[in-house]
Design brief:
There is one protein chain. The chain is an alpha/beta fold. The chain contains 12 helices and 8 strands. The strands form 2 sheets. It has a 5-stranded parallel sheet with strand order 2-3-1-4-5, with helices on both faces. The radius of gyration is 21 Å and the shape is globular.
Length: about 270
């Protein structure tokens, strides 16, 4: 079972390539609609996801609690989808979230700036200046998203196994290159870490829950074999108990090893 992540620049034909690779391999395509649906189960409105998903957050969003919750949930969602195996995940920083995961193939689709602008102009049937604005905005938002949430450089080639320039290559050639790589022995025959990915997803869900509660500083939260071990500082014994209860209610967590301490004095202020 394989996992393919595809990072793409606006006008690079990355979305078209992702869809075609998915069809050819018989995989499941994971893109914006599936991500939004997963987030709705955590209380996020579609408008909230649109504001934060693959966009550079404003200074107010960077400082908001919602941004921290989104950070944990996007990681959890990617881990959950990757755990299924045989998926193509488009964008969302999946190349970073799943870095080092066995059986994951990370692909970046690019093209020269002018080529991308001309493609967008043709696709959107708009003037060159408007197409240029769309490409610049797309590059700025994608780069800012990766920088803000993952402290990484979107164009860093070390994040990818394949970097493909679509200026002169036919779509079928690009599709064949990716599918051949996905079917290679080192990718396809890697042991699929489904259980480990599910544990990573649960760990991130737990962190999101605690961020939403407030009154606690989480040092770490790790899930192994259904047991969540959480450590940190809580404002009061009551909040400590509330945290344990909230984590234990997450589907997939069977028990909680609560190592949260209550600091002396007015550590939290007020």
């Amino acid at each position: 079972m394989a996992i393919i992540t595809i990072s793409r620049e606006a006008g690079s034909l990355g979305d078209e390539i992702a869809a075609a690779v998915t069809d050819k391999l018989g995989y499941e395509l994971i893109e914006k609609s599936q991500i939004s649906e997963a987030f709705s189960g955590h209380g996020f409105m579609i408008s909230d996801v649109d504001t934060l998903d693959e966009k550079k957050p404003s200074i107010w969003q960077v400082l908001s609690k919602q941004k921290d919750i989104f950070d944990h949930l996007i990681r959890s969602t990617v881990y959950d989808f990757a755990a299924r195996g045989n998926v193509v995940i488009v964008g969302r920083g999946a190349q970073i979230i799943l870095k080092g995961i066995p059986g994951a193939l990370h692909v970046r689709i690019t093209a020269p700036y002018d080529v991308r602008v001309n493609r967008v102009m043709e696709h959107k049937e708009c003037e060159y200046v408007n197409a240029e604005r769309l490409v610049r905005r797309g590059d700025r938002e994608s780069s800012g998203y990766i920088s803000t949430y993952f402290d990484a450089d979107w164009v860093d080639s070390s994040l990818y196994d394949l970097v493909i320039n679509t200026e002169n290559l036919a779509l079928n050639t690009v599709i064949n290159v990716i599918t051949e790589a996905a079917n290679s022995e080192e990718i396809k025959n890697s042991p699929h870490p489904s259980e480990r990915l599910k544990e990573l997803a649960l760990s991130q869900k737990g962190k999101a829950v605690l961020h939403e509660m407030g009154g606690i500083e989480v040092a770490d939260l790790v899930v192994e074999k259904g047991v969540a071990t959480v450590s940190g500082l809580a404002r009061s014994p009551e909040i400590r108990e509330e945290c344990e209860y909230a984590i234990s209610n997450i589907e997939g967590i069977a028990a909680v090893n609560n190592l949260i301490n209550i600091p002396p004095g007015n550590y939290f202020g007020g």
